[in-house]
Amino acid sequence: MNSTKQILIIIQRSNGDVFLSSSLIKALYENYEEPQIDLLINDDTISIAELFPFIRNIYTFSYSKKRKARWRQEKDIVLDLYKKYDLSINLTASDRSVIYALIAGKKSISAVEINKSKSWWKKIFLTHYYYFDDTKHILENNLKSLSLLNINYKNIHFEIEASTRTFLNIKSRLDSIMVTNFIIFHPSAQYEYKIYPKKLRDKLLKNLSKLGVPILVTGSSNLIDMEIKKILPSLPNIHDFIGQTSIEEFFALSKLSLGYIGMDTLNMHIAASQNKRIFAIFGPTKLSMWSPWSNTLHKATKSNEPLQSYDNITIFQNSIPCKVCGKVGCGSNHGKNELIYDIDPKEIFNEVEKWFIKIKI
C-alpha cells in the first residue's frame, strides 16, 4: 500500500457521520505523504465536507435525482469512479456504497453488517472488511480501516478550523452587539423527534437568561430551525442567531464561546472537537454511538443514563422507555416525530449554573 496516491472515501450518511470522518482523512493524508483524497457523500452533507482540508474532489449522491432518474445518476457515478483509485474506503455497510467502493478502488475496504445473510458477498469481493459495531462510537467505527492498513492512530477527533476571514467577520458581528464572553444554546436537530419541546425549552431559556451572560441561540435556515425562530421567547441576555450563520461561521462562533448547551446534532460534535464545555440534551439516541467524544479521555460514554458527566461533558437523556421497543436510548424514533421528554429544565440549568459559578466570568 506504500504506492497509494489516489484514495476515495465514501460516506453516505448524515452530517455528523461526515464530520466524524475528519480524523480518518487526516491520518490517511499524513501516512501516505499527501495523497489525492476524494469524497463521495450525499448531497445534503456537502456544506460540511467542503470545509475539510486535504480533499481534492467531492462527488455527491442525490436522493432526489434517484427518484427522478435513478439509473442515469448511477451510470454517471460509476463512470466517474471506475478503477480510478488505488484505495477506496467505505464507512457504511449499505449495498450501494459497498458496490461503489468495489467499482472505484483497486483495493477496497468497507464496513459490513454482522448479519451473514447481508454481508457474505461483500466479504468475498472486498480486499478488507470490518464489522460496523453499533455498541462503539461512530469515530471508533470510522477509524477501524486504519488498523487494517497497519496505520497507527490516536482516538482523537480532529478539529476543523474556520478561516481567518470568517473569524474576523464573526468577531465583528459580536462587537456590534457588545458581546465578548457567551454561551451557545442550540435548540434544533436534523430530526424533529430529537428536539427538546417548546414548553420545556422556554423554561430553560428563562433560567439561562438569569445567568447574566449572553446566550446565543443558533440554528440554520431550514424549516425546523425557522419554526423555532418564530416562537423564540424575548428574554434578557438571549440573542437570536438562528439563520444568521453558515456552518463555517458556526465553527468560528463555537471556538470563541465558553460552552455549548443544546441538542444531539452536528453542532454538538463541533463543540466537542474543540474541547468545549458541553451540556448535551438527548432524546432516544443510542449514546454508545453518538455521545460527544472526549479528546482528553479518548472516549465517549457507553451507557444510556438520565444524567452523567465525563471530562468536560454533561449529558441529559430522556429516561422514559420507548413505547415501541421498551428501551431507553434505543437509537430509533420508529417513524414517529413526537416522543415524550421528561428532562426537567431546572435540572439542566442547575448543572450549567454550577459550572458557570466556578469559571467566574
- Number of helical runs? 14
Total count of domains: 2
> Can you name the CATH architecture of the largest domain?
3-Layer(aba) Sandwich
Q: Which ranges are low-confidence, i.e. pLDDT below 50, for 5 or more consecutive residues?
A: none
Strand order of the largest sheet: 9-8-7-10-11-13-12
Nearest-angstrom radius of gyration? 21 Å
Number of β-strand runs: 13
Overall shape: it is: globular
What name goes with the CATH superfamily of the largest domain?
A: Glycogen Phosphorylase B
The CATH topology of the largest domain is what? Rossmann fold
Strand/helix succession: EHHEHEHEHEHEHHEHEHEHEHEHEEH
Q: Terminal Cα separation, in Å?
A: 52 Å
Whole-number mean pLDDT = 93
Oligomer: single chain
Give the structural class. alpha/beta
Q: Which band does the percent of strand residues land in?
A: 15-25%
Q: How many strands, which pairing sense, and closed or not: the largest β-sheet?
A: 7 strands, mixed
User: Class of the largest domain in CATH?
Assistant: Alpha Beta
The helicity comes to 25-40%
Features:
single chain; 361 residues; alpha/beta; Rossmann fold; 2 domains; seven-stranded mixed beta sheet; six-stranded parallel beta sheet; globular
SSE map:
Layout lengths: L5 E6 L3 H5 L2 H10 L4 E7 L3 H4 L5 E7 L1 H19 L3 E6 L4 H10 E8 L3 H10 L2 E4 L6 H11 L15 H13 L6 E4 L11 H11 L6 E5 L3 H8 L7 E5 L4 H10 L2 E5 L2 H8 L3 E6 L4 H4 L16 E4 L2 E5 L27 H15 L2
Parallel strand pairs: 1-2, 1-4, 2-3, 4-5, 5-6, 7-8, 7-10, 8-9, 10-11, 11-13
Antiparallel strand pairs: 12-13
Helix pairs in contact: 2-7, 8-11, 9-14
